[in-house]
Write a structure and sequence with these properties.
Helix content of chain A: 25-40%
Order of helices and strands of chain B: HHHHHHHHHHHHHHHHH
Shape of chain B: globular
Distance between the termini of chain A: 58 Å
Number of helices of chain B: 17
Radius of gyration of chain A: 31 Å
CATH topology of the largest domain in chain A: Alpha-Beta Plaits
Largest sheet of chain A: 7 strands, mixed
Number of strands of chain A: 43
Shape of chain A: globular
Helix content of chain B: 55-70%
Oligomer: heterodimer
CATH architecture of the largest domain in chain A: 2-Layer Sandwich
Chain lengths: 1026, 456
Amino acid sequence: MSQVTPRPEGDTPQDNTFWRSSGQLENTKEYRKFLYKEFQEGASVLESPMSRRTFIKLMGASAALAGVSGCTIRKQEQRILPYAKAPEEVIPGKGNFYATTFILGEEAIGVLAESFEGRPTKIEGNPSHPQSLGAAKSFQQGSVLELYDPDRLQKPVLHGKSLTPEQLEKWLGDNSSSLENKGQGLAILTETQISPTFYRLLDLLRQKLPSAKIFRYDPLNQESVYTGIHSVTGQWLSPYYDFAKANIVVSLDADFLGNDVGSIAYTKAFSTRRDPQNEKGINRLYAIEHAATVTGAKADHRLRIPYFQIESVLWALSSSLVKKGVCSSDQVLKATQADVALSTDILKVVDAIADDLAANKGKSILIAGPQQPASVHALVFLLNKALGNITNTLTIREINFSKDLLIQKSSLNSIVDLSELLQKGQVETLVILGGNPVYTAPSNLNFEEKMAKAKTTIHLTLYKNETTEKATLGIPRKHYLESWGDAKAIDGTQSIVQPLIEPIYPSKSDAELMSQLIGAPSTDFELVQNTWKSKGILLESQWKKWLHEGIITGPSAGLSTVSIKDNGFVSAFTNQVKASKLSPKDAIELVFTPSYSVYDGRFANNGWLQELPDPITKLTWDNAAIMSKKTATKYHIKDGDLVEISTKKSSIQAAVMTVPGIADNSISISLGYGQAKAGRVGHDTGFNVYVLRTTKQPFAFSNVSLKKLGKTYKLASTQEHGSMEGRHLIRIGTESEYKKNPEFAKEMVETPPLNSSWPEKKYDTGNQWGLSIDLSKCTGCNACITACQAENNIPIVGKKQVLNGREMHWIRLDRYFEGTEEEAQVVHQPMTCLQCEMAPCEQVCPVAATTHSDEGLNEMTYNRCVGTRYCSNNCPTKVRRFNFFDYHQRNPQSVAKERKHLFDYMREPDPSVQRQFNPDVTVRMRGIMEKCTYCIQRINQSKISAKNEGRDVIDGEIKTACQQTCPAEAIVFGNILDPESQVSKKKAEARDYHILKEWNLKPRTSYLAGIRNPNPALVSTASKGA
Amino acid sequence: MQNESTVQRPHLITPGINFKEVSDIVCKPVEDKTPKWWFIAFTGAVSLLLLLLSMLSYLIWEGVGVWGLNNPVAWGFDIVNFVFWVGIGHAGTLISAILFLFKQKWRMSINRFAEAMTIFAVICALVFPGIHVGRAWLDFYLFPIPNQMAMWPNFRSPLLWDVFAVSTYFSVSLLFWFVGLIPDLAVIRDRAKTKTKKMVYGIFALGWRGANRHWQNYEKAYLLLAALATPLVLSVHSIVSFDFAVSQLPGWHTTIFPPYFVAGAIFSGFAMVVTLMVLARELFGLKDLITLHHLECMNRIILATGTMVGYAYAMEFFTAWYSGNQYEAFAFVNRAFGPYAWAYWIMISCNVISPQLFWSKRIRTSIPLMFIISIFVNIGMWFERFVITVTSLHADFLPSSWAYYSPTWVDLCTLAGSFGLFFTLFLLFLKFLPMIAISEVKGVMPEANPHHGEAH
């Protein structure tokens, strides 16, 4: 362990281990006298002329004194002590990787955490975990910042007063009356758990405390999928899709490339089929959605349909399939044929989809979003079945732990039951494991009031949130990087959660608290080991293997057949279908969506995620009421206007943002913002929409009223302009265009002869680094931005500075809209320093702070930079980022610097947050220009180890942070001189093109043109839209 | 010569004034009791100067972020003010050096004044390159100072050329101005009534006795300095324009910039001279020495250079269209019709339209009108730099990075403060130094002609 210790005040003369003068070693009287006497002999006595002897004495004394007195003007030295006994694998300055598992709801993503001398700094995907395959998204990347968040609950709080761990244990012991009573009056509310250990403990708890009641609640969940499928099969089943096998994908309000469960693995598989060179050919995605999602942005045909009409489109699709005889034998489908009033344009597309599906039986996927009602999922399941997709492109498994009644009851019903119980006063002690039900529970439950009816409420939580505030006792919860655990992913993969660091605060994991409730307190390590011992498969050697690989068992096998219940669909949904058709024609609907930044609100205090621009709106630090321009104009609303959105029961205020391509009369607004108790980073961000949600309408209202308030609100978006202005920056062609002329992208721009007026430097030896970004694969999911931020110590700047246009992200995702305002299609382009060989920035820097390396990198010498910003002005892609302020100091979590130095009046990042910093990357001060350098620290690390091993750098050995985390594998880095390297092969593809080629920049980053695969039958419609 | 009898050249100063009167008029402000208005004006100017100092302290304390700059617009008021002040600083040396070499005798009454203005304007300009950087305490990196890294600055950067060009210009202008001052300082020394004054002016007069040898050396030095300063007048603003022209940003990358900047600089410099001169001749009673003829001459130059600037504006559009380059074309259309169109049209109306009024002799010779127009030109030229700097940057190649720039209160106060610095120095100059070159004016009086008083 490295340790920073303050300098000792003064050595004791007895301590002779280290000595700095012979006087000290001998511990002479003179030395001691000198040590404790402020004014040394002769120091202020100048009457007598100084003898040679006195002079020498004084010299010696002052030399020794210099060490004792310490420094006042120069920085005080800090000592890093070496390990007394060094752990074998820890080499200071070298990162180690440990496998663990990130858990979010039902999702378990295997990750590798990089650790420097015991402090995790960066999360990467775990290549051997099938839910990650080496990739990670922003939530995983951001979780390391969450670990170090100084706003976490640090001590147990009882009625608002902090307790010591001992006091907590005593209190828990004193208040365990319910335990003696077989759990009478004890209720436990948990988030959806996917840990086998938890369910083992739950069984134990039920045995020990049979009267205790268990409930669960998650504001965002998969339950409508499960209930839908349950209604037609009678079984608790979960679908898992294989997008690599599907030629045709029809997405109904699903965001399988974005926020839906499984999105990383889905994106991996989906993107393999966006490569026109894939042997199975490029796939075709139809997206039918009300809002704009990253999935919709990737679609070949996108239909904007209000949330409540998506079901009608599905009806139309099923009846079209029946008409075409695809599903003729299926009696269930016949029963569901309802008349639907849709425009002929839409019906034409639906018909084309049906044709496509009919032609690709067993090779297609229908997928619906978890926010859609169960009836949609039931029908989607039936259609997938009828199309022969099940077992081909769909794996059907039993839902994890679905034998447990806790899972069979939906989380919404579960919390309704709990609040009834609370209402009746039957709960004496309520234990809440994680979550924030006071904030997230449906508003009609009045959970906050009901919670107060329990005598004691205990909240195990990472943050002190609204629920903790109202609870009797708040206990700090362990972060996943601090705890032992296990998890079962949706595909059945089981993996280990392994701590990277001792708990920073005295905290408990869910399992530990459960074991305490059972009355057998134990550590989470023992609990996890016991789980696997009880399954009879834990051997010491296996345990090590599990820890090493991060997984226990791979994906479980799917069911080979699924039987459909007769008439199950009709009996379950006939009434509902009728009801949904009753909404008035011009009614404005309101839909709640998960946030790409804070998910359901749990990441609200994470600066990286708060400042992460929404992939579509590019909005940071806020959510907004997203609507189409037409809808806004109808109400005379402009961007940034505050409106009041009212349902029958309650209303909220929100700022409006108009986005092209949104369904008319539809407002979508993301969850998770507007938290009253969110910590210093997340407070005062956005609008709380949970207050509108009810148990009946958890995701959408079909008819809300909208009122302009006459006030405005500043929304901080990182991109103001959405049109490409006819410039060929993102080049996209259709598959047929590509087949006709594979070089279409190169030929889009005609350039004059690109000759320089001076001899150009030839970069023809050694490693010449280059990057290729495949626009056909990139989904715009933002993972690269957070990965880069974590890797390169990039500060957050805050909403005000984003409004000023000063965000610091080294890689950004340029978003443009194509087509008309109504039928706009979103396109994305990751943009970072292009590492131009003829870099305009280098030429104009007066102090040569940015120069070119022999390996073709455009490097920044931070120490040399004076900050003229001329380089940024001359950069055609404006990828340079300037530290207008010291953003680390301005972070709301910064602390006053310890005064060790005359000029230390400043602030610095919280010591806890400092531990996240990547030691290989300089933390920049204000006044300095910075930018991407292809993760030069990673390049050098690999070069050093290659040199030590006497070999060349192997292709693929160096991965830039953005490349490593990219779930779409759109980014490839390597040596462009090696014709066999992956990047050379990418750059040799016909689709490869350089942006702004006519400027003769000779960039090292090139793009592969995006390829779309529109249905030829719809091309006229598509060209109208695109 | 034959012409002389037929064409009457206008008098350079009001006839009937003798040598002594010239000395009296010029020395009066230096010798008399300081007028009340001077103190009022000086208080105002010093307050603004203090504002500048506090803004700069705040800037260096807090960071460049206190300005309104953002990611595409990395240069804003800082560079606009710099170029504006360098431009103003053009008239002086032009009047002193180039008009001297061309033997334009009307320059004699105004050159001292204009040169002083030049020096002070360049001082104002020099403030900005130093403080606009992110880490002002490392400014010395810009100079080729031997260092432990054995590292030179980047000589390919126009910003570095700028450092040399402006500092050379400043030192030569200062020297030129001082050399011109020597005989006049001696005059004040000789007329001084107090010992301190005698001593102080005596030191700066460098022992000038008006000997023949002194005059010979003086004339030679003055001529040489004029010859040295002349190319600098042209080079300094050419090089300032290289800051823009050498980059590859549409709207900046234009070969027309050097001549266009020089014309613009002369334009703005003359306008500033007119603004100040009109006030000074009124306040100090210098109407006999600075006649309407002088002002008219300057207005003609304003008209000429204003027209050149207007031509350059038009030519830029033509080039943008003719180049067939969509980025270039967009930059100019965006300039005139984009979000900053307001700034563009302020610039056009002030710089192109307003000086055209000087075609009329009535306007050219009307003191109030020329004062107003000269102010307009000053405003217009500030906006020209704003238009060039900001509108080109705010929307360049990738629409994704486009953003609107607006100044903050710190930007505005810094601009106001730079006027404080200028006027503080200028008021001190008016108070302590002869604002008209006594010896030179005497040299162009009819009495100075050796043949004066002789019959033909």
